[in-house]
Amino acid sequence: MFNSKITAMPPSGTKPVMQLIAPATGDITHLNELTHPLCQQGLLGDGVAITMTKGDVFTPVDCKIESINIAKAQVRLVSMKGLKMLLQIGEPGAVIMGERLLMHVKAGQRCTANTLIAQCDPLWIKLNGHAPVCILTLLNTAKLTALQVMPGRAVRAGDEEFMMLHA
Questions:
Q1: Measured by CB atoms within 10 angstroms of the end CB, which terminus of the chain is less buried, N or C?
Q2: Which domain holds residue 85?
């Protein structure tokens, strides 16, 4: 298991530097609770998953869409402050070639926080034997001391009290 910076309480002696809004509606799940080894070992970055109850996925902050993978299930974002993020719809391999996935953004597009990125079918993902999750990971966290996930396990897309980044 990797050394995650996820915490429930703000660390003493740090200051909040950026707030991320919830990209999807559902229950917060820690990456080590997922079944895919890439998630469990932190190879996709440090972050959390949201077990989706609704299929709309949004940007967590003002950002630029850096790239969308060929399967359309993985979107790389860069915030205006340079934070690199990865939004994965379903665990790796759950969505193949964009099946049951409608993208609303293109690579290179600038978006404000809470812009609709994609729509998916969480029930279809679950019926195909995968966890219906939206995984949000941060890729360049070296300057951050903690990723504070706000208390409570249920979130709604657009909730401002989802994750606070500390330095």
A1: N
A2: 13-166
